[in-house]
């Protein structure tokens, strides 16, 4: 999208950073070492082996590349390094959804559309995803999302309810139910802050998501 640097990393579904301006803020190796409790030599090694994009000679790394490194390696992201109006969004989904490539592709598209809509109201959006279960619970605790989006299939059953209960017990995150095109009408009655199918018009989606960022 315009004026947004989108960094997509390896993941089953989505792991990305959306930047709502063209600035390329840089941070020093000292800041990185202090944030990660690493030695300066270790940080320089990560840069020299291209595990962390940066310039060791200039003693700096782009902030977005450092955030991408932390996100990709499931490391805690220091709040002090984030710009104002940063939002963290976590997408949770049933693992069996990945068995259907077409369904997975549609979900990725909807995830990206939701992130782009949120970016309109933020300076930076960090997005991650995980399948329902233990991995989702660990990601909730480590990532500390502001918004959690849960995907509902045709018959979500106890799995979705259990995951929703886990989200509300572990976090104060706002919850969004993302409806798959096969989801039944009764799913709309689930106790969440917003229900959406992630479909156009884009302005309507943006309007519905904006209040979740301001509370």
Distance between the termini: 26 Å
Q: Helix count, per DSSP?
A: 7
In the CATH hierarchy, the architecture of the largest domain is 3-Layer(aba) Sandwich
Helix content: 25-40%
Spatial strand arrangement across the major sheet: 1-2-6-5-7-8-9
Q: Indicate the overall shape.
A: elongated
CATH class of the largest domain: Alpha Beta
CATH superfamily of the largest domain: Response regulator
The fraction of residues in strands falls at: 15-25%
Run of helices and strands: EEEHHEHEHEHEHEEH
Overview of the structural elements:
By secondary structure, the protein is an alpha/beta fold. The protein has 2 domains: 26-81, no CATH class; 86-213, 3-Layer(aba) Sandwich (Rossmann fold), CATH 3.40.50. The chain has 7 helices and 9 strands; from the N terminus they run E-E-E-H-H-E-H-E-H-E-H-E-H-E-E-H. The protein has helices spanning 29-36, 40-48, 63-72, 101-119, 134-143, 157-170, 202-213; strands at residues 5-8, 16-19, 26-28, 60-62, 86-93, 124-131, 147-152, 174-179, 194-196. The strands form 2 sheets. It has a 7-stranded mixed β-sheet, sandwiched between helices. Helix 1 crosses helix 2 (40-48). The longest helix is centred in the middle third of the chain and has 19 residues, at 101-119. The two termini are 26 Å apart.
